[in-house]
Amino acid sequence: MRTTTQGLVLAFLGAVLVRLAWEGAYLRFVTEWMRWPLLVSGVLLVLLAVRPLLSAGQADQDHADGVPAVTWLLLLPALVVFVVSPPALGAYLAERRAGEAPPASPVASFAPLPEGGTPVLEVEELLWRALDDDGATLAGRSVEVRGFVSHGPDGVWYVTRMVIGCCAADAAVVRVQVDGADRPERDRWVAVTGTWQDGTGVRAGEQAVLAAESVRRIRTPAVTYG
Amino acid sequence: MLLLAALLAQGRLADTLDNEALGTWCTIFVAVVVQSTPFLLGGVLLSAAISVLLSERVLQRIVPRNPVLAVPVAGLAGIGLPGCECAAVPVAGSLIRRGLAPAVALTFLLAAPAVNPAVLVSTAVAFPGQPEMVLARFGASLLTAVAVGWWCLSRGDRLPLRRRPDPPHLHGPGRFVATVRHDFLHASGFLVLGAMIAAAVNTFVPRSVVDTVAGQAVVGVLTLAALAFVVALCSESDAFVAASLTAFSDTAKLVFLVVGPAMDVKLAAMEAGQFGSAFAVRFVPVVIGTAVLSASLVGWWLL
Prior knowledge:
A: 2 domains; B: mainly alpha; DUF1980 (chain A)
């Protein structure tokens, strides 16, 4: 790889990182706190490219500092972002990972839900509350959960979220089954108001079910991961 | 030319690749690269700082003269580098370039991603009410790093470690920048290669296929060791994945947590690039074997 090419590869990757962090598209891949590290890294990579790019046309081009052939692969992630613009993880992976256990609850027990109205719960919290004391804090309450739609066999559907720790590679699936409402198309973001069905999801490995009162479409949020 | 082709093809390619599985692979692949690049760059900056600032004399004064003693010291020094494993590879490379015994630098490479505070805290969060898991992870990872370090020491010069040529000889700030660029260009391609494989495993192999062997003690341990190698997660988030593998015994989960930061497909590719493939072919199986053994022992004792 010629010195000028090395510079181009670095600058391309750097520019793509800056663009991802700047426009917010990085949220499809990593968590929110990565924004500044990505901006700084992108700018540094572009700066690293300055000297090789300036040296274009100089005599010592071809026997410059050699790099392994595998360095060409560095173009691939930047090209993929640029050409394919991969979407946030959605129903496809959620359906494939359906059998896996959701993350453990960070607290041993939950305080009662706020009095009155329809509290909005994270899907994850709904699952944890169902596991806590046989779902005592959920019994008889109408709640709202938001997430994307994933499908199961025989017309079953779920409000689903992907929860990530570091990046999309460690995504875990959390989902609650929705009964009593028409099944929307996959990957559609919805807000479902309903009542937790007594006795569902109270043991690890069982599926929590929400009896729907209403389902409305919502816009895909900026941060799709939990 | 390539850029021009990409520009022209943007719309059409996006349609052709509108396939959910491929899209998911792309997302996970880019995610691994995007997550690792700042850490790799940080590691490369640190390693350039070591190359430029830390003279061989100073290094010799800090590190115990006796390498048998220096190995556990290097293991404990790993507590001080709170980064992902990608950062540790170039740092170990530059420590060897500075004349540190390879066994000592490799011990640091194995310990740093596993025993630093960020990893231990995330382990404590992922396993609420099980502080013994944190202790077991710390102990088993340190044991692995030190044991492999001593093994390297006993192999001595028979270890086919390739020392990469020094970056171009310059002085002052120019040398620092050239070292950073040189190290980044040498390591990053291997990181991308590892990310491609890890993303393929994450996308196309559902983790539930491993659940079928969860009941068997030995097979369960070996399966999670293999899983840790191929999925190549960040050491700061792997505890959450381990905690979700509820069908497995705690010892098998510990094996997952000890093997992952020490060796995975991404690290193996980067180490083959840094130290040569003849070295990686010996080093990778030894690290995995040692990690499985030490995690099983510690797990049997503590969990």
